[in-house]
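Weekly structure sync - notes
Attendees: PM, LS, DV (DV joined late)
Agenda: review two folding runs queued last week.

Item 1: First target. Sequence and structure tokens pasted below for the record.
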Amino acid sequence: MYTCPICGKPSIGRNKITCCRKCYNIWRSHTKTCPICGTTFYDAPSNDTVTCGNPKCSKRHRQQLYARGVNDNALRRAHEAAPFRPLTGRYATNIHAKKWIIQSPSGQTYKCRNLLNWLRQHEQLLDGTPRQAWDGITKIKYSQQGKRKNISHQWKGWHLISWGE
């Protein structure tokens, strides 16, 4: 007869290590120690969790990593690569870019992919900054979707014909 290493009760039956299934599950669980407060917590060994889950411990751990410069090299490489990555940069190939058909105040129709990028490239056509134009045109889109209380049909004469994938 064995004594349960979790609660100290005698272990009887098939499960000879612990007294019950609950204690067995605790015994089988993997534990980690928080490097900030020293608290022991249960976590799978394959999980990347380092701290106990207390937001203060997590914040302190990130501050320590930043002070040591752990992520500096990866962050520098990401910033260097971003202008050349077609899926993440200011390109028509951006992963989140959508197709837009807009009409200027003069009646000219323009087709583009990645509206904000197109507005930046054709800033001379706008009565404002590209960001203001993008905001105005997206308000038209939200109005057409029924998501705006104050409906907008045009921005300084610009009209939205269609948008999509």
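Item 2: Second target, run right after the first with the same settings.
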Amino acid sequence: MSDTLVIYKSKYGSTKQYAEWIAADLNADVYDPSRFSPRDLDRYATVIYCGGLYANSIRGVRFIARNKNRLRGKKIVIVACGLSYPHFEESVARVQRGLESRLPQALHENSRLFMVRGSITYSRLKFFERFILRMLETALRKKNPERLTLEEQEMLGVLGSDFSFVDRASVQPIVEYCKAK
């Protein structure tokens, strides 16, 4: 049994893929939270939570908040999988602020956020998700091109088509952080 746990909540598969890669590289146990009993958290020193990123909110992160007492003193790693580019400081800051507002203060000092990029297959999206992405694309196209951020420019380049930014190399910093004691 490993002392590292990877929990993931994946809607379309990108987050699950990252969770499996992280678990393989760390020889960690990996579970969907619906198949995991929170009382088993006591067995782990490091808990990695992977969730999809939707409007700066990480899907399923309530799992961490609900289990704050069992997670106290553990190394907590949160991996947000979405379209935002992890190297844009403003993107990371937005997600970090959202995460801090959803997690109890007691967990902030032991947690670390990482962001990885996901994928979109339009045929698999629900109507509302396609609608939101169309609204985003329309809003970006109406903006003065000189005022678009680098992230917005990149988004315009891919919205409306299937794409994948899923990259196994993206888990390396997460794995290195988890291995450091």
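Discussion on item 2: The first helix runs from residue 14 to 26.
Action: LS to circulate a short write-up before next sync.
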